[in-house]
Amino acid sequence: WWFRWQQWRFRFLIAGGMACFALFFGMLYFGISPDSTYESLFFPIFIRGLGMLVLIIAFALFAVEELDERYLIYNAFFLIASRSVLAPILATSFYSNTLYRLQQHYFQSLAADITMTDPLAAEKYTSSLNSSLAQGHSYNEAVQLATGSLNTTLQQQSLLLALKEILGWLFVASLVIAVISRFIPFHKTIRVKYTKAGDDMV
């Protein structure tokens, strides 16, 4: 309904959509932790969906407003192929590889400093070792279980650090795009014909 007022400049819509993404990434960056729950993601995902809705509608209207009707079907195919096929594949590949590379980097960095001289690492290792021995495992098995528990903790921490770095960069990028797009002179206003109730019956 807010498109019908004919006063929404294209740059405001793009800035608003990117601001929603900036808010989404910012909430995840500052809110994600080992104790996070699924319920804490409800509001950020809603904000992301709102941003996607605004950007998809705005770009679609901007692309077809002055387009020849003969090319509408080609434009629709291009938008669907880009948004629903190419973009998800490229984004998934890029972020999966980036996440894996960063996780391995942080895992090596954390593992290099894990020794028995580290009080936290020594306490966790000793606690896991004593727990395994109390459960009836042999000493060798207890050592393997304690080492595996420490390795799992390092994997979790390295994954969290990798996510933090990716979300931080995305937060900064989306915030910069939102600010810049606010001042880009697109010289276009979203125009949507609006028919009042009853006018079509006259």
The radius of gyration is 26 Å
Quote the average pLDDT: 80
Name the helix and strand elements from N-terminus to C-terminus, one letter apiece.
HHHHH
Largest sheet: none
How far apart are the first and last residues' alpha carbons, in Å? 23 Å
Shape descriptor: elongated
**Overall strand count:** 0
Helix content: over 70%
Number of helices: 5
Low-confidence stretches: none
What proportion strand? Answer: under 5%
Derived from helix and strand composition plus strand pairing, the structural class reads: mainly alpha
Topology:
Blueprint: H1 10-31, H2 42-64, H3 72-112, H4 119-134, H5 139-182
Helix pairs in contact: 1-2, 1-5, 3-5, 4-5
Describe this entry's structure for a reader:
This protein has 202 residues and is mainly alpha-helical. 72% of the residues lie in helices and 0% in strands. It is built from five helices and no strands. The chain is elongated and about 75 Å long. The mean pLDDT is 80.
